[in-house]
Specification:
By secondary structure, the protein is mainly α.
């Protein structure tokens, strides 16, 4: 959003995935206006609704620990020793190997289902309204020979 004019930048994208969003941020925001100081979003709610997981969970296979949780001990902790550290690290590694791929696959399946549902809804809306052209209606002509090759 431009702070002077309060003009937001938004774009409808065909696929709600990381590649499309990154392309939008790079081409439509950074290349046009330089690096923004802040990016305002819907707080990942669209992403979480689609994947049923936060981006952090899909990368690290666990919920995020907030800095305040480190300062204010809200969970039981035991003193860190070399033996304890090695055991915890090994346990975490096995946990990642077992669960991370499953969570990512489940998120990909949820995205696929959501996209199919959106496509079906969109196609139904198109089929519900048949277009009838009358004489002297103005229509858009798509001339393929003028298309860049």
């Amino acid at each position: 959003m431009d702070y002077l004019t309060k003009w937001p930048e938004a774009k409808a994208i065909q696929r709600a995935n990381v590649k499309s969003v990154a392309k939008f941020v790079h081409q439509d925001l950074i290349c046009q206006y330089r690096c923004p100081k802040k990016l305002l979003s819907d707080q990942e709610t669209h992403f979480q609704d689609t994947t049923q997981a936060t981006p952090f969970e899909l990368v690290y296979s666990r919920t995020a620990t907030l800095p305040v949780e480190i300062e204010v001990k809200t969970y039981p902790t035991e003193p860190i020793t070399e033996k304890n550290f090695q055991r915890t690290l090994l346990k975490r590694t096995y946990n990642l190997m077992e669960t991370l791929e499953n969570k990512q696959q489940k998120a990909a399946d949820n995205i696929q289902k959501s996209q199919e549902k959106q496509k079906k809804r969109h196609n139904n809306q198109l089929l519900d309204k048949p277009v009838e052209f009358k004489i002297e209606n103005k229509v858009l002509l798509y001339y393929t020979k003028m298309k860049k090759q």
